[in-house]
Design a protein that fits this description.
The complex is a heterodimer.
Chain A (H helix, E strand, L loop, with lengths): L2 H22 L6 H26 L8 H18 L3 H25 L4 H21 L9 E2 L15 H23 L1 H11 L1 H6 L4 H27 L1 E2 L1 H4 L2 H14 L6 H19 L6 H16 L4 H8 L14
Antiparallel strand pairs in A: 1-2
Chain B lengths: L7 E12 L2 E12 L3 E5 L6 H8 L7 E6 L2 E2 L5 H7 L1 E3 L12 H9 L6 H14 L15 H14 L4 E5 L7 H16 L3 E5 L3 H7 L2 E6 L2 E6 L1 H6 L1 H8 L7
Parallel strand pairs in B: 3-8, 3-9, 6-7, 7-8
Antiparallel strand pairs in B: 1-2, 1-4, 4-5, 9-10
Helix pairs in contact in B: 3-4, 3-5, 4-5
Classes of the chains: A mainly alpha, B alpha/beta.
Amino acid sequence: MKPTTLYFSFSKILILVAFLFLLSLPFYTGSYILHVVIMILFFGYLGACWNILAGYAGQISLGHAIFLGAGAYTSTVLFLKAGVSPWIGMWAGGISGMLLGLFVGYLTFRYGLKGHYFILATLAFGAITKVIALNVEKIGAAQGLIIPFKASFANFQFVGKTFYYYYILFMVVGIVLICTAIERSRFGQILMAIREDEDAAESLGVNIFRYKLFAMIISSFLTALAGTFYAFYIGYIHPDTLFTPFLSIQITLIPITGGMGSVFGPIVGSFILSPVSEITRGFLGKFSGLHLMVWGLIIMLIVILIPRGIIVELQHYFRKPRPKPLERSLT
Amino acid sequence: MSPEANEGMLLIRNLTMTFRGLRAISNLDLEVMASKVNGLIGPNGAGKTTLFNVISGFLTPQEGQILFENKNLAGLRPHEICRLGVVRTFQIVKIFPGLTVLRNVMIGSFNRNRETKRSQEISEQALHQVHLIHKKDQDASALTLSDRKRLELARALATEPILLLLDESMAGLNPTEGEEMLSIIKEINRRGITIFMIEHMMNVIMSVCEHIVVLNYGEKIGEGTPSHISKDRKVIEAYLGEEFSVA
């Protein structure tokens, strides 16, 4: 068998085993481990959403937390003020995140902001949104919003973590399928061409503005969809946890570690980075910020040893003829 | 040959492109002849690549018209111009390094069709035409300069153009590679695609082009057949340096 086919059949088996393992996990773990895995999957999902815009279309956003925040705030406010079920609120949240994405994308892409300038613009939008959220009294301002616990299916609130676990696992499976479809489609091919060279893509008839905007809309909508999950799982939302630039950076580092522009990169990246933050927070809580040091160390090693991320590097290793390493460009 | 074969396919009228007061192209009038190989020559800094950037929509001229099949291209975006059938290559090659050779070409073929399977057929055909089909599954980043230039050409062909703008397709190639490129370009033209090419190698220009435009400091100083150009005093002074014998 050729190394390529060997790799792909091997990876298929690996994916299946990992999936079965995750499916059965709640039957033999305690709630703490389950919580850690929920957060791993949650951040893997967010990384995968970010990856659609950044990994495929090459537009590095450092403001993705605002979409998550928009989704979380929309459904929470609808629930608290109007009694709208989160099952409906999550779609409203998705749409509000999408509109925010449309706004940010239209302004930045219309005026041709590329590379570093795009990154700075998304960072600025993140900062602006946080200030707004901290000052609007109607959405709790600096106090945040507490969701009173009333367990029921309609309220998206459950005793124990099993339901949340399966829900986020379902979302991860969903995003994996969506990314696979994008990667194989004409749409995905064109996004990757834009990532590789915008001018060349444009000269070949690609309306780059429309494609980048479309990638932004999909990415922000899916990100915002997870906001509802976060709000009702944690039960408390606050601008400092949802609109913080650090959350945006966290969303960014996960796919970079696992492999940008690949379907499983963000999920694998999350399994490497997220436990570090969860476990250090759990066991070494008094040394707050310790997980950031460990993260820093991991990121340094990854950038030096496997700059394209784990999954992408593995794929290339098993592919022949081996191409020259690509210069990693964030622009 | 169609009856209009000798008419201008691309008519440039009174074109001016300035960069903050610097006139890169001023009051330019020229014609690109349908179904021929047209050449664009001139010393460095004459405005040749700027002209290509203007025609292909990467720059918007301050004044003038670029008429292609009775439509004015001035002010349109590059992708709209490509859709109309005018496609360019770049002086410094711009491939998609992270994609395979075939995928590179398929991006071009998406210009005129949405179906992946049909795209693949068109792309493989284009790769045949530039003799690169045997490398279709390689990553484009692994290609040599000569292969990259041919890949760029295949990608442009896959968009199914009417007019092809080639910006120094032969620069940096060794004589053998240059010969091959030249025969590929001739073959593309023979199949009915009009060529407008910037080139510095005079023997290439003189042997392959039927119509030549000479630029100097953003102005046209000569236009005509190779034999006409090679005897033009202004062209000789500005660029050729000596009378160029046309074989």
